[in-house]
Amino acid sequence: MGCLLTKTKTMTNNSSVLSENKEVKAAIYNFQQWISMTEPMELKTAFNNILALSGYKVLNFTEHLFQNGGYTCIWLLAESHLAIHTFIAENKTYIELSSCNKEMNILFKIAFNKKFGALIC
Fold this sequence. Notes:
This protein has 121 residues and is an alpha+beta fold. Helix content is 25%, strand content 43%. β6 (80-87) and β7 (92-99) form a beta hairpin. α1 (40-54) packs across α2. The radius of gyration is 18 Å and the shape is globular.
């Protein structure tokens, strides 16, 4: 997956179009955290909201409920991905965001802290 931003400028004379591709710096900004929320629908709702507040573009979402009640889901983002894994026996959920956009990563952390606080389980 490449982090490529595309800007398109349309010029009115002769209907010509100029496309400018700007490569993003090769860097990944990670955020990992443990939380005590484990209910799948609550997790989906909370993290859909946090991603939206952060400006991330969701390309795809997939999830799986295990027989033991465990839950895993992944958001494929234009800017990388967010993965969530629950550990029901310990009442914990692991969150990991990888992003090539530093500003969005910071906004994600701010929204996360507003929702969950800075507490680590």
